[in-house]
Write a sequence for this structure.
């Protein structure tokens, strides 16, 4: 399973998403996504253990 970290222009994490479609939804909602990085496997394990990636998205 692939997860993505969305960063703003300052490099701060603003969301974690499971699909590029989720990233697109956040962009349409006006989130200031400047960069999207694919998470490493060891980082993604934390997301899958803690629940849905949507749990990290305050506006979702």
């Amino acid at each position: 399973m692939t997860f993505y970290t969305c960063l703003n222009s300052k490099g701060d994490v603003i969301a974690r998403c499971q699909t590029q479609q989720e990233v697109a939804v956040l962009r349409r909602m006006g989130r200031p996504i400047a960069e999207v990085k694919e998470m490493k496997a060891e980082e993604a394990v934390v997301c899958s253990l803690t629940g849905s990636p949507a749990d990290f998205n305050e506006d979702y």
About this structure: The chain has two helices and three strands.
